[in-house]
Amino acid sequence: MNIAILGFGTIGSGVYEIIEHATTPETKALHVTHILIRKGKPKTLPYMCDDIETILNDPALDVVVETMGGLEPAHTYILQALQAGKHVVTANKVVVAAYVKEFHECASENDVNFYYEASTGGGIPWIQGLEKALRIDQVNRIHGIFNGTSNFILDHMQRYQATFDEVLKEAQHLGYAEADPSADIDGFDICNKLRISASIAYDYHVPDNFPVFGIRTITKEDVQYFKSLGMAVRLIAKTKRQGNTYSCVVEPILFKENQLEANTMDNYNLITLHGDTIGDLKFFGQGAGKLATANAVVQDILDILEGKAHRVLHFQKEMQYDTTLCNRDYIVRCDKSLRPMLHHLSYDSSTFDKYLHVKNVEVAHMHELMKEILKHDATAFMASIHDHREEL
Ligand SMILES: NC(=O)C1=CN([C@@H]2O[C@H](COP(=O)(O)OP(=O)(O)OC[C@H]3O[C@@H](n4cnc5c(N)ncnc54)[C@H](OP(=O)(O)O)[C@@H]3O)[C@@H](O)[C@H]2O)C=CC1
Ligand SMILES: N[C@@H](CC=O)C(=O)O
């Protein structure tokens, strides 16, 4: 099977390494025949080219692997490859979250496969697991740690008392962070992964119009305060469906220190789905990193080689977004002069004076308040408190 890799960075070079150092009969059947690099960059390997047409017009090419990242030209190249009768595998959640419906339609029209396991959960076979669960159950709830960089940062701030900037630099050095790490720390990477997961679960192309709050403003002191309360913070994405309404949210959540999420370390992800008959099912593994993610890409290529079909999705359902599906307790840190903005909420006045514990607030309302607070205090932070009784 002949493969072209578009983009030779962390993941593209990982795919190349796995195929070049093949040790199993399956991977020995794969051959990289083209690598697309930017114009003007030195061609350090014989298969390198800087022209997409050469790749699209090669009749011997079977699979295009897209690991460039971003919306364009990834969107155009993926469509062109599918239209040219090539199967496509991508790790790019930005382009999948935005165009999943269009890509599925185009693949089906051209009788080829479009697979994107590595886009969500890195090396974890999460999409495959979700699709398998959907063969028997409705999946009405998904939640979890979907971002390796933010987990690495929060875990290392807690375990090693490191500062945010120190750990972010390390995550970048290890190849976990996006080219622009604001996507990791502001929650937009995890937002894309939640959209992809919920779109598959609900067979509805979920838009990006839900509340997202990241970890940009968290401090070492916040993490130590949460620790003194016996809790650890993790950046979590959640979705829930009731009938034809659904909710999605991304925010930092505090877990008791004996909970699995609180013990998910380094670049690991922990994703949970709830199915009617299977109950809670958890997926755990490296959510970011060169070889773990490249492994998921190669698994998709092998599925194509072995003719293993993935779930057929149409994204034709009609659904409504419902902001009122959940209320939560929050801990908020902001300048004391801004506290009156929170006084209409019920709160615990006995709590440590730097932090306000507010109770039973509707999630979308809390996110709106926090947006206002951040306009006046750009360092403010909030985290919700996980309630094990809560139906997500
Ligand atoms: N790193 C990780 O752990 C994971 C990454 N992903 C996803 O995989 C994709 C790749 O990520 P990653 O490898 O980390 O990113 P990198 O930035 O390391 O690699 C991207 C590569 O693509 C090249 N590139 C970008 N645009 C073009 C273009 N128009 N033509 C040719 N080459 C191009 C870049 O070149 P240049 O350097 O010159 O810009 C770079 O070499 C992203 O979508 C990312 O979100 C998914 C899961 C995990
Ligand atoms: N930057 C992402 C890479 C994988 O998707 C992350 O840290 O999870």
Describe the protein's architecture and organization.
The protein has 3 domains: 2-115, NAD(P)-binding Rossmann-like Domain (Rossmann fold, 3-Layer(aba) Sandwich); 129-287, Dihydrodipicolinate Reductase, domain 2, CATH 3.30.360.10; 323-385. With 392 residues, it is α/β, with parallel strands linked by helices. Strands 7, 8, 9, 10, 11, 12, 13, 14, 15 and 16 form a 10-stranded mixed β-sheet that branches. A 6-stranded parallel β-sheet has the order 3-2-1-4-5-6, sandwiched between helices. The longest helix has 17 residues, at 93-109. Helix 4 links the parallel strand 4 (63-66) and strand 5 (87-90). The model has no long low-confidence stretch (mean pLDDT 95). The two termini are 43 Å apart. It contains 13 helices and 16 strands. Ligand LTNE7NMQ is lined by residues 122, 147-149, 176-178, 184, 189, 287-288.
Give short descriptive properties of this protein.
392 residues, alpha/beta, Rossmann fold, Dihydrodipicolinate Reductase, domain 2, 3 domains, 10-stranded mixed beta sheet, 6-stranded parallel beta sheet, 13 helices, 35% helix, binds NADPH dihydro-nicotinamide-adenine-dinucleotide phosphate, binds the ligand N[C@@H](CC=O)C(=O)O, threonine biosynthesis, EC 1.1.1.3, homoserine dehydrogenase activity
The DSSP helix count reads 13
Helix content: 25-40%
Secondary-structure element sequence?
Answer: EHHEEHEHEHEHEHHHHHEEEEHEEEEHE
Beginning-to-end CA distance, first to last residue: 43 Å
Radius of gyration: 22 Å
Main sheet attributes: strand count, strand direction, barrel closure: 10 strands, mixed
In CATH, the architecture of the largest domain is 2-Layer Sandwich
- The CATH homologous superfamily of the largest domain is named Dihydrodipicolinate Reductase, domain 2
CATH fold-type name of the largest domain: Dihydrodipicolinate Reductase, domain 2
Uncertain residue segments: none
Counted beta strands: 16
Bound molecule types: NADPH dihydro-nicotinamide-adenine-dinucleotide phosphate, ligand LTNE7NMQ
Strand content: 15-25%
